[in-house]
Amino acid sequence: MTTPLLECVSLTKRFGDLTAVDSVDLAVYPGQFLGYAGPNGAGKTTTIRMMMGLTRPTEGRVRILGQDPFATPRVRRRVAYLPAELHLDSHLTVAQTLDFWARVRSDVDPAYRDELCQRLALDPSRTTRNLSTGNKRKIGLVGVFMGRPDLLILDEPTSGLDPLLQEEFQTMVNECKFRGQAVLLSSHILSEIEAVADSVAVIRAGQILARGPMSELLQRSDRHVRVRLNAPAVIPQSIKQLPGLQSAELLSSDVIDIVWRGPVKPLLQELVRLPVDSILAPEPNLGEAFMSFYSQGSGAMPAAETA
């Protein structure tokens, strides 16, 4: 079995009586893009700081390429980390900042670094002091991508970027996946995760509510089904008794709105008995899945992580 680039087992962090991260299990494999989704304060950044060896877990363990980042700090060179809040030396130019980071990594291709600056419309001659949040974010993105590390850990990476540059970021991430690099992206912007992630972990109040392949999570989330009938609408008892039914209500005299969880075949088998004019059942997106798992709370059982 493939060894994960990053593995967290029962990772827990407490601050006094507050449990910020509670028994988190995660794994990221070569070529995988894992989206780490949750609102601000859910425990995403605390988890990442433990992954990077910046704070010690109260319980559990972290392994990078099978090694303990606390006992073997050099293994962190295989990882590039972009924090949510990037602090820069205001006396340096963009070029000087990137040169300094390149010397620390010692494996940076200058031509690729310059290409990244051009793609992100970043002027290397400017001093970092008066740069906008978006331009500072660009420096961080060039910094993490330029060394082509085995694993990139990105915390809110596109904060402050305009839509065109967000698309360029997605292209850069897909190039990483093609080269066999892995990416963990922590964000509260669900559309950003959905655009590029192949698997997702959803966290709330320090606990993982759900995790697994993107397609599987979307199928496990609640789905809205709107049924228009050719006759006055009545919700049959046979539908009300179906295990997957979360709610059903009449929107008008001939329209039924259904919230359904799970495979839709049992519902469709009942609907065909009705005088149906049309059925609208769009595929759920990650935002809808996210809200579904949050509404389910601890009842959302995590799916097994796959390589």
Task: Give the helix/strand class.
Answer: alpha/beta
Fold-level CATH name of the largest domain: Rossmann fold
Count of individual domains: 2
Global outline? elongated
Give the CATH level 1 class of the largest domain.
Alpha Beta
Strand order of the largest sheet: 5-6-7-3-8-9
Number of helices: 10
Mean pLDDT across residues: 89
Major sheet summary line = 6 strands, mixed
Pick out the low-confidence regions: 298-307
**Helix content, binned percent:** 25-40%
Terminal Cα separation, in Å?
A: 9 Å
Which range does the strand content fall in? 25-35%
User: What Rg, in angstroms, do the CA atoms define?
Assistant: 23 Å
Order of helices and strands: EEEHEEHHHEHEHEEHEHEEHEH
Q: Total number of β-strand segments?
A: 13
| CATH homology superfamily of the largest domain | P-loop containing nucleotide triphosphate hydrolases
Reported CATH architecture of the largest domain: 3-Layer(aba) Sandwich
Domain ABC transporter: 6-230
GO molecular function: ATP binding; ATP hydrolysis activity
Family: Belongs to the ABC transporter superfamily.
InterPro entries: AAA+_ATPase, ABC_transporter-like_ATP-bd, ABC_transporter_ATP-binding, P-loop_NTPase
List the helices and strands and how they pair.
Elements: E1 6-15, E2 18-28, E3 33-37, H1 44-51, E4 59-64, E5 79-82, H2 94-105, H3 110-119, H4 133-145, E6 151-155, H5 163-179, E7 182-187, H6 190-196, E8 199-204, E9 207-213, H7 214-220, E10 222-229, H8 237-240, E11 245-252, E12 255-261, H9 265-271, E13 276-280, H10 286-296
Parallel strand pairs: 3-7, 3-8, 5-6, 6-7
Antiparallel strand pairs: 1-2, 1-4, 8-9, 10-12, 10-13, 11-12
